[in-house]
Design goal:
Blueprint: H1 9-12, E1 21-33, E2 37-43, E3 51-56, H2 57-60, H3 62-65, E4 73-82, E5 90-101, H4 117-121, H5 131-153, E6 157-158, E7 164-165, E8 177-178, E9 205-207, H6 212-222, E10 224-232, E11 245-254, H7 258-279, H8 281-291, H9 295-304, E12 308-311, H10 312-321, H11 338-349, E13 353-359, E14 375-383, E15 387-394, H12 399-408, H13 417-421, E16 430-436, H14 437-445
Bound molecules: 4-amino-1,4-dioxobutan-2-aminium adenosine-5'-monophosphate and magnesium ion.
Amino acid sequence: MKEIRRTKISEALKLTTFGEEVNLKGWVRTRRGNKNVSFVALNDGSTINNIQIVIDVANFGEEFLKPITTGACINVNGKLVESQGKGQTVEIQATEIEIYGAADPTTYPLQKKGHSLEFLREIAYLRPRTNTFGAVFRMRHHMSYAVHKYFNDRGFYYFHTPIITASDAEGAGAMFEVTTLDHANPPKAEDGTVDFSQDFFGRQTNLTVSGQLEGELGAMALGAIYTFGPTFRAENSNTPRHLAEFWMIEPEVAFYDIFDNMDLAEDFLKYLVKYALDNCIDDIEFLAKMYDEDLVARLKFVVENDFVRLTYTDGVKILEESGHKFEFPVYWGADLQSEHERYLVEKHFKCPVILTDYPKDIKSFYMKQNEDGKTVRAMDVLFPKIGEIIGGSERESDYDKLLQRVEEMEMDIESIWWYLDIRKFGTAPHSGFGLGFERLMLFVTGMTNIRDVIPFPRTPNHAEY
Ligand code: 4AD
Ligand code: MG
């Protein structure tokens, strides 16, 4: 074949240099036609859009073209011409074709169109080839980049917190243990418990549930940091909004109080949603057409409107007085369920909501205590269709108050002495929050199951490909 530098399909579709010869490589979405002419819709992942390859059958022979079926990968040289068909401006008249890899139509799982999302979840290794997952995973990339750009442009430093941790202090959920001990025959201490001093790290370790505690150490030195990494929770919550392995973004900022923190969270979310609208509109429009016709309007609404801010106490009052029948009872002191959060957002305010000042007993030990002795400076951002998308707080910066809380909750001080100690050496007011990246992805794609916005979802009883 003639050596021509490859053009990505996203670029080729914009070309107007008709008559020029180009090289394209990609996977066949469909091939149709007749004895004389064959049309291939080719996709290389650079865009949701396919390019049409027109093949004069006589030039190649039917036998040669046979393996060019849905899923096959081909390398094409051809002449760029103005398209005759509707819906596209350019197409390629093939001059040379090499078949990189066939995909036997009798066994290729994506041979037919229109598979259910449930079915596609069973073939995670192939689903990026579909239009839907191509769109979602391209957007996942763009949103990751937007996260880094947002913080970099504002002087935040990307701070890498450990994935293997010896503290289980967050109380954010059950943890996965990391060990090299022999399962069948672990070393035992005298009291019969497992002797972790013989484990790899000389102590018991787990996968982190959050980078926050270490992130705070970064903020106490660099001023403003953020983490963006995988986090792990071993809760058995099989819901469309929970993963056992998910990605979280956690900014932490010295000298911020809870109001600065709310401003940051609102500005950050609006930036991300606007970034999606500005940079991913082809994919968004495809997903809107397929799954959710209100998607674009919902995204614009979030960008253009102020979030409502109110206290947990006021929120509970609204829920109690709503007359609405909830599956889980609502009363002051109850941990709000997603049905309660969504009622406030979708039915009552019809707008994103930031709830603050939760009862201390349903929130983490590190949150700054209010004067009332009952509530803490927590803030949760609640979104339409999602419920909680962000959880955060102002942190308790007073050593004695924090210690008191740790003791009250009978926490293991041994594993978080450093978290307390940082309050002894130049403590400062500070705040931060965590954005669940897949919750954000649910929102910007309009998908409704969190398993469909991460390439390889990990959930109870599921670590497949
Ligand atoms: O509210 P969470 O548990 O807060 C923390 O972990 C704090 N350390 C954050 C901080 O203040 N730096 O989790 C934060 C967010 C939630 O609002 C939600 O979006 C997401 O992480 N999240 C999950 N996403 C997917 N699957 C799960 N199992 C999740 N648990 C929490
Ligand atoms: Mg939370």
